[in-house]
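Predict structure. Input: Putative short chain dehydrogenase, 259 residues.
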Amino acid sequence: MDLGLAGKRALVCASSKGLGLGCAEALAAAGVDLVMNARGAEALLGSAQAIRDAHGVDVETIAADITTEEGQAKVVAAAEGVDILVTNAGGPPPGVWSDWQRDDFIKALDANMLTPIALIKALVPGMMERGWGRVVNITSQSVKAPIAVLGLSNAARTGLTGYVAGTSRQVAAKGVTINNLLPGIHATDRAVSLDTGVAQQQGISLEQAAEQRAASIPAGRYGTRQEFGATCAFLCSQHAGFIIGQNILLDGGATNMTI
Ligand code: NAP
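Output follows.
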């Protein structure tokens, strides 16, 4: 299927690895020029070059912490005029509900709620003026069904979801869609870090923790960044202009619910 995206330009945040990289790769495969971001320059430069080599698109890289005002300013300056925005950042650490302090919540809100909101506010007005735009926020399955140890994530991402629900309906008439992609467990560094926590807590090996988790997923396995990226590229495509304010779960059936 031709996604109709050749020649468009996208900012993909937190994209040197994992799900953000999957989105960057899938958009590049559709002919989209990229601004890629991550904190660490080495992996970012390596991933950007691999995408240039594979797809022949232009890729600009901005090494910065997207959760800081300074980082956002650098990234937004480079991304001026983009047609597509994919927001993403690292997820908050796991823990116990009674231990988190105000500072922990402020950090999680900054990273996983206020950063995507700041980027939407900076880049969506230009999309509206030009009459076309796509925003995809990488959130989490925890928005649909809370994950006990990830209370900081549950809280921050649900706040973003409420903002998107209201905002997406105000910008849709200008040709701009805003939707959220909700990953369940995917085979990335984040999954390794979550499984390491389970292994330590239960006194089992990392492999056992991963097998145990995979067995709890109806699909019987972890998702891949390629599957995730393909869904993101479709949501950004010309075919997806009538999908507004939705929360699309990619979890191998793990969240047990009817609708
Ligand atoms: P990952 O494999 O750990 O990759 C994270 C990427 O984001 C890296 O490129 C990292 O590069 C970059 N990054 C992290 N913090 C950043 C920051 N402050 N500023 C700029 N770049 C940053 O993680 P992932 O699995 O792709 O997860 C992406 C998001 O989806 C996270 O919020 C995660 O919580 C959420 N999620 C993931 C899963 C899963 O199973 N993988 C499930 C549910 C939700 P640097 O470290 O160099 O900055």
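The chain is about 50% helix and 15% strand.
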